[in-house]
Amino acid sequence: VAGLGNYGLRGTRHSVGMAVLDRLARQLAVAEGWRADRQCCADIALATAHSLELLLLKPRRFMNLNGLSVASAAEIYNLRPEDIYLVHDDLDKALGKVAIKLGGSARGHNGVRSCISALHSNEMTRLRVGIGRP
Fold it and tell me: Using CA atoms, how far apart are residues 119 and 36, in angstroms rounded to an integer?
């Protein structure tokens, strides 16, 4: 599960993917387990939910390069694009509204575009979190 965002601009609307992962880590009791992974250039935490092993990942890059971290983790942890969930902001959704989407285009989202390019696939599931337009 990758929370997309701008690592240096945490706490902003466009980094809501990372905030969702922080919340998920607390819910799964692994919030103290984040560690920097130099190979992926990301913060990662391992968790288990409903007998599934999860890799939580927050790229340590700007949004338009998030895909490099996601692709590195996919290679290291032997993940296929269809195993990956991207959590990201969506300007076209009202604040706080969420939607799940399987595959498709990036719809103008630079972080998703980066993931599609780096993974050579658009088969990732996306959790789109509404941030509304300013």
Answer: 22
Q: What angle separates helix 110-119 from helix 66-76, to the nearest 10 degrees?
A: 40
Which are the contacts of 101, defined by CB distance < 8 A and separation ≥ 6? Answer: 125, 126, 128
Closest listed residue to residue 98, CA positions, set 60, 65, 69, 132: 132
Q: Are 45 and 34 in contact (CB under 8 A)?
A: yes
As annotated, the active-site residues are 14
User: What is the mean predicted confidence (pLDDT) over 28-44?
Assistant: 96
Q: Distance (Å, rounded) from C-alpha 14 to C-alpha 37?
A: 23
Q: What is the DSSP letter of 97?
A: -
How much is the pTM? 0.94
